[in-house]
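**User:**
Make up any protein.

**Assistant:**
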Amino acid sequence: MVMSFRRMSLNHHPGFDCGGTLWFQNLTEYPHGALGPILPFLIAGLHLINIQMSFQKSSLQHVPGTLGLLAKLYKAYLQLLTLPILVATFNVPQGSLVYWLTNSSLSLIQLLCLTNPSVLDYLELSRKNASVEAPTDKQRGQHGVADTVILTKQGATPAQSLSPAELVSFSIKILTDGRKDTAIGLLRLALEKDPGYVRALLILGQTLLQNKQFAEAAEWLESAISKLLVAGYPTEVEEVDLLILSSIWAGIANVQQGKMQEGLVHLERIAQLEEPEDAKSKAHYYDGLFILSSALLNVDRKAEALEYLQKAAAYNPAYNAYFELLENDSKDLTSDLASSRRDF
């Protein structure tokens, strides 16, 4: 219905020349007069606010290396679009601007709702309506992970009494607050309870990689891979995604230790998989191909590297920007990729 409204204003549908309100009485006209800039400036402002809200809690832009840089560049690109949007809105019928303003406003309302704890509790989207009260990383030097207390609606719960899945869930919440040592303790506890819990192995490996504990990170990640491959290549969506992520980070952990060939074994495993149908897994898959292309350039396998980069760029045009970088400075890019990470 809204889209029909937009098309009718663009096509000068009869009645739209007198169907407006306030200062935009004619919906088929372009913004004009002293009040004309109001809708364009509101739309450009909402675009900028929506970007800030969308990236507010994104961990990617705080990640070191190329993926973190890519997230920052993408945010900067979206911010720079504010000016072209402002210019464009002066050349769009006012009826379309009403549609645009409504859409942007609803997006902002949605973002505000999804960052409101009360709304998340009502929708049961919060982490089981629980919060974590854990000792600081400094305090953990004197006290163990057993001192971590989970506060739920049912009361305080010691970490020792939680299931592995709950421990992983709360460790992720703590990681978003930057408390890596506490999260690592919870993940180790989860693996004491269930040594074969692949998700815990993956997240522990990722976290240790962030801490630059590359050798131990590689061990945990390779353990996750071995468990996923125990019966051959997995077919379940979640297991395929875990295999892709584990292979990416195991490859990076080995590259960071100077073990390029070992790293390539893990990264090339991704290329051997079929393209996943699941959207999230597909994004991880092409991220893996992108990282593989950089690693291959570092061992002078340029033709293969460009082939994988072309595949990644066909999926995500943002990777086109790296063709020149890969041609001119492949080793620096590989080093950056080795320091990068992706959300859990």
User: Anything to note?
Assistant: The chain has three domains: 2-120, 127-194, 196-344. Confidence is low (pLDDT under 50) at residues 127-143, 329-342. The longest helix spans residues 94-114.
